[in-house]
Specification:
It is built from twelve helices and twelve strands. It is an alpha/beta fold. A six-stranded parallel β-sheet has the order 2-1-3-4-5-6, covered by helices on one side. It has a six-stranded parallel β-sheet with strand order 9-8-7-10-11-12, with helices on both faces. Helix 1 packs across helix 3, helix 2 packs across helix 12 and helix 6 packs parallel to helix 10.
Length: 358
């Protein structure tokens, strides 16, 4: 009912012809275009593909009548998140509503895979196509979006193409070394746990889970620990007096930090997928695994995400970090299963398979 007027205006605008090669990128939860949408846009522009691109974000929202016309006449509507205004729309023959989902892999359940999901909802179900990062994930994304498997295309994750851009990687490293010169010449352990709690209002990380003093001492001078806490975590961990711990929680892009990293230490964060593409070792530090599994379901058993050693005891963490290897057979299997198509060619594959620009 919230979008009844928009639906009515959209239906009236459907008398107008669809404009071929016009793409509407819709991202109303953010103030600017980013992630997969931006990567696709930049690929199209860099390669001079014959498309006209319009963008709508929360900061440039047009009047409802104008938005309805844009929605009704674009050949392609691309979204990268939950976009409630599009779900009541009857997508026209010849139109494409494509979900280029911001996340990758398949970790914590979302959409209709959650037990609490309202199965009769309209949400997600009118996508003509959706993308995922490997062929094995096609049925997972189909279930989560409530669409048939033939609509899910394994193309990779366009926003990860930049991981293969040597100039970008070099500039990101240089920027971080300038910001935190103590990182140069050290082996880097990136500690990036996800939050506990429900949301931005009550997010936290249990301080007794990790003993930073002991970890700092056991790793020694050859290592530098980087803290990158989830933005929802309100309580900051005390690192005063530890020269080999650097807090980069204020960094917007954790991916830039991954370019410096030797070993990622995380728990239930989807950063494990980006980390695998970049090629770092990993340790999954999950003291509360049994409790967490009961509260938030995973698509597969947690062991399936073991791209490195799973540690529950904080006293064993330092040893696990020191022995972690990017050549771990578990990491190789993890990459094959979840991110096999994240190879620097995802945007091209998207254009070839979805926009049919072979």
């Amino acid at each position: 009912m919230r979008y009844a007027k928009l639906v009515s205006l959209y239906n009236k605008e459907c008398k107008n012809p669809i404009v071929k090669k016009r793409i509407l990128m819709l991202s109303t939860s953010k103030g600017r275009l980013g992630g997969n949408l931006l990567a696709i846009k930049e690929y199209i522009e860099k390669n001079s593909l014959p498309f006209e691109i319009e963008t709508v974000t929360s900061l440039n929202m047009p009047p409802e009548s104008e938005l309805a016309k844009k929605l009704a006449t674009a050949e392609y509507i691309l979204v990268d998140d939950y976009e409630p205004m599009v779900y009541p729309l009857s997508i026209r023959d010849g139109q494409h509503l494509v979900q280029v989902w911001h996340a990758m892999g398949a970790f914590k359940k979302f959409g209709y895979a959650r037990e609490t999901a309202e199965k009769n909802s309209l949400t997600h179900k009118n996508y003509t196509e959706a993308i995922c990062s490997s062929p094995e994930l096609v049925p997972v994304y189909a279930e989560s979006f409530g669409i048939s498997e033939d609509k899910v295309k394994a193309v990779g994750t366009p926003r990860t193409d930049i991981f293969f851009d040597e100039k970008y990687v070099a500039s990101a490293k240089a920027r971080l070394y300038e910001k935190a010169p103590e990182l140069e010449g050290k082996k880097i352990a990136l500690f990036a746990p996800t939050f506990r709690g429900n949301n931005v209002n009550d997010g936290y990380y249990p301080e007794d889970f990790i003993d930073l003093k002991a970890l700092s001492k056991e790793l020694g001078d050859g290592w530098q620990i980087i803290l990158k806490l989830h933005p929802f975590i309100k309580n900051k961990l005390d690192i005063s007096g530890y020269e080999n711990i650097t807090d980069l929680s204020d960094e917007r892009e954790i991916n830039d930090i991954l370019f410096l990293t030797d070993v990622l230490v995380t728990d239930y964060s989807s950063v494990i997928f980006e980390n695998a593409i970049i090629g770092n070792a990993a340790v999954l530090f999950a003291p509360d695994l049994d409790e967490y599994e009961k509260g938030r379901g995973f698509y597969f058993s947690f062991d399936s995400y073991a791209c490195g050693e799973i540690i529950k005891d904080k006293s064993a963490l330092a040893a696990a970090i020191k022995s972690a290897s990017a050549d771990d057979i578990r990491m190789k299997e993890f990459k094959k299963r979840f991110v096999s198509l994240c190879d620097g060619e995802s945007s091209k594959r998207f254009a070839d398979m979805i926009l049919e620009e072979k």
